[in-house]
């Protein structure tokens, strides 16, 4: 299995590396703990999926993936794990038991799901970051097998350690490919420790509940999505709103509450990405930096960068390398 050969480092994989007939089978082989099928049988051929993955020696795993619609069944023989899940775009509808249903959305925040319990999720236009922890690791650290999760997915407390973990997982998704092996191990160890501390807060049903969407949740989800997708030069406010599950008017409202604008936030994210690329890849042409930062027009990028940093992209690269 591909992930098992990727121990102690982040790896980016895509179904595009396979022939159209083999793409879904390849995708399913990457997730042996979950039974996967396409929602629409016709999509089995030419299935689209992209994933950034890290697998630790102790069975802990990090996954950041975007893929076509799937149906996932948990509770299989390999399901002795707890999954923390952060939806970035789209939704995943969960059936637990016969009638209990939950919906994972960007506004849901960080949720916990027991991989050993029988449940089925149907994802639509889904982009998600997940952290999987072996149950025995949780029991050893907390002395608690989190029986509250047997009732279904739980939304983790929107405070303290949950915010730190959410931010860290998001940063891992953005920076994982750039980390060397030692840095990747350190980042994963920090994520595991924060996850255990977060799960320690979930000791009763009152501490973990589904939280309805609101301005702060939509704003947080939209900002995460912008930071991860700002390299797409076709990204717009309408696309961001669609991804996080709200109207464009509601998206503008959520930003306005904090005296922010969608356009300024997207522009700042693109220029920060450009600055990072200029320094991380000294030989990358400025035109390519512009394109990978969400600018189709290199001249417009240069003007925006000078306004943002007070110097041209080339001057910035030279100044920081001195």
List the helices and strands and how they pair.
Elements: E1 10-14, H1 23-29, E2 35-38, E3 49-55, E4 61-67, E5 70-74, E6 81-96, E7 100-104, E8 110-114, E9 119-134, H2 135-142, E10 154-155, H3 160-175, H4 181-199, H5 215-229, H6 237-244, H7 248-257, H8 262-280, H9 286-292, H10 298-309, H11 313-321
Antiparallel strand pairs: 1-3, 2-5, 3-4, 4-9, 5-9, 6-7, 6-8, 6-9, 8-10
Helix pairs in contact: 3-4, 5-6, 5-7, 6-7, 8-9, 8-11
In a few lines, what is going on in this structure?
With 322 residues, the chain is an alpha+beta fold. It contains eleven helices and ten strands.
Features:
single chain, 322 residues, alpha+beta, Jelly Rolls, Arc Repressor Mutant, subunit A, ten-stranded antiparallel beta sheet, 22% strand, disordered N terminus
Describe it.
By secondary structure, the chain is an alpha+beta fold. It folds into two domains: 2-211, Jelly Rolls; 216-321, Arc Repressor Mutant, subunit A (Orthogonal Bundle), CATH 1.10.10. Helices cover 40% and strands 22% of the residues. The chain has eleven helices and ten strands. Strands 1, 2, 3, 4, 5, 6, 7, 8, 9 and 10 form a ten-stranded antiparallel beta sheet that branches. A hairpin with a 3-residue loop joins strand 6 and strand 7. It starts with 9 loop residues before the first strand and ends with a helix. The model is unreliable at 1-8 and 204-213 (pLDDT under 50).
């Amino acid at each position: 299995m591909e992930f098992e050969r990727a121990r102690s480092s982040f790896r980016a994989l895509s179904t595009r590396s396979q022939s159209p007939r083999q793409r879904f089978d390849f995708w399913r082989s990457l997730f042996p703990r979950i039974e996967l099928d396409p929602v629409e049988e016709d999509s089995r051929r030419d299935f689209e999926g992209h994933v950034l993955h890290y697998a630790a020696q102790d069975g802990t795993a990090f996954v950041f993936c975007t893929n076509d619609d799937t149906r996932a069944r948990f509770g299989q023989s390999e399901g002795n794990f707890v999954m923390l899940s952060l939806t970035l775009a789209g939704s995943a509808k969960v059936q637990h038991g016969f009638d209990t249903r939950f919906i994972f959305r960007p506004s849901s925040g960080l949720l916990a799901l027991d991989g050993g319990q029988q449940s089925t999720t149907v994802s639509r236009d889904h982009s998600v970051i997940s952290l999987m922890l072996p149950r025995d690791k949780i029991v050893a650290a907390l002395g608690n097998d989190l029986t509250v999760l047997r009732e279904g997915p739980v939304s983790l407390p929107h405070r303290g350690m949950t915010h730190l973990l959410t931010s860290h997982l998001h940063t891992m998704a953005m920076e994982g490919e750039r980390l060397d092996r030692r840095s990747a191990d350190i980042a994963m160890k920090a994520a595991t420790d924060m996850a255990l501390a977060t799960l320690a807060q979930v000791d009763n049903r009152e501490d973990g509940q589904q939280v309805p969407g609101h301005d702060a949740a939509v704003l947080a989800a939209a900002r995460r999505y912008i930071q991860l997708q700002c390299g797409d030069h076709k990204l717009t406010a309408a696309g961001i709103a669609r991804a996080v599950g709200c109207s464009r008017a509601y998206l503008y409202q959520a930003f306005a509450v904090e005296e922010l604008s969608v356009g300024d936030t997207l522009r700042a994210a693109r220029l920060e990405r450009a600055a990072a690329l200029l320094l991380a890849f000294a030989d990358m042409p400025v035109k390519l930096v512009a394109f990978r930062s969400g600018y189709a027009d290199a001249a417009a990028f240069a003007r925006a960068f000078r306004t943002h940093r007070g110097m041209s992209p080339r001057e910035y690269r030279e100044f920081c390398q001195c």
